[in-house]
């Protein structure tokens, strides 16, 4: 697609065509809403990572090398850090990079802001799609009412 928008005059479409357009818009809206939720979840994970780095930063200043290491979701064991100056940062698809605390903090902060911007853009797209769905529903409702009125006049 070239990115150009195609404008359709809804008044020229038959009720069956309007129903098909509405169905397509509903599917797109469902997909976009799902994508929004996934992006929001990813942003929350990055925020959690940022909180962990921040807490590690505070613990480094307090000279604490002890940590709790998760073995399962509910089982932790006490551990000691060999290096408190660096952390492993997941940069995607399972790749980990060792970074200084400040660099990790900047990385996660940048990712959180980037996802926030993407969420705003996606929210605007979702709102436009919802407006389109409402417009199609209104025209479809008017056409059905007009068809019913015409049918009742014939009888």
UniProtKB/TrEMBL annotation:
<feature type="coiled-coil region">
    <location>
        <begin position="112"/>
        <end position="139"/>
    </location>
</feature>
<dbReference type="GO" id="GO:0016272">
    <property type="term" value="C:prefoldin complex"/>
</dbReference>
<dbReference type="InterPro" id="IPR009053">
    <property type="entry name" value="Prefoldin"/>
</dbReference>
<keyword id="KW-0175">Coiled coil</keyword>
<dbReference type="Pfam" id="PF02996">
    <property type="entry name" value="Prefoldin"/>
</dbReference>
<dbReference type="InterPro" id="IPR004127">
    <property type="entry name" value="Prefoldin_subunit_alpha"/>
</dbReference>
<protein>
    <recommendedName>
        <fullName>Prefoldin alpha subunit</fullName>
    </recommendedName>
</protein>
<dbReference type="GO" id="GO:1990114">
    <property type="term" value="P:RNA polymerase II core complex assembly"/>
</dbReference>
<dbReference type="GO" id="GO:0006457">
    <property type="term" value="P:protein folding"/>
</dbReference>
<comment type="similarity">
    <text>Belongs to the prefoldin subunit alpha family.</text>
</comment>
<dbReference type="GO" id="GO:1990113">
    <property type="term" value="P:RNA polymerase I assembly"/>
</dbReference>
<keyword id="KW-0143">Chaperone</keyword>
<dbReference type="GO" id="GO:0051082">
    <property type="term" value="F:unfolded protein binding"/>
</dbReference>
<dbReference type="GO" id="GO:1990115">
    <property type="term" value="P:RNA polymerase III assembly"/>
</dbReference>
<dbReference type="GO" id="GO:0005737">
    <property type="term" value="C:cytoplasm"/>
</dbReference>
<dbReference type="InterPro" id="IPR011599">
    <property type="entry name" value="PFD_alpha_archaea"/>
</dbReference>
């Amino acid at each position: 697609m070239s990115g150009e928008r195609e404008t359709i005059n809804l008044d020229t479409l038959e009720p069956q065509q309007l129903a098909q357009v509405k169905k397509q818009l509903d599917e797109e809206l469902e997909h976009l809403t799902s994508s929004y939720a996934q992006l929001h979840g990813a942003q929350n994970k990055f925020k959690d990572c940022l909180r962990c780095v921040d807490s590690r930063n505070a613990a480094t200043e307090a000279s604490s090398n002890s940590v709790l290491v998760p073995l399962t979701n509910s089982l932790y064991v006490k551990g000691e850090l060999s290096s408190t100056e660096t952390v492993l940062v997941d940069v995607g698809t399972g790749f980990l990079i060792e970074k200084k605390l400040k660099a990790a903090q900047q990385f996660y902060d940048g990712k959180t802001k980037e996802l926030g911007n993407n969420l705003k853009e996606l929210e605007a797209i979702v709102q436009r799609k919802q407006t389109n769905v409402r417009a199609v529903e209104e025209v479809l409702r008017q056409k059905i009412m007009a068809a019913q009125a015409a049918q009742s006049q014939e009888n």
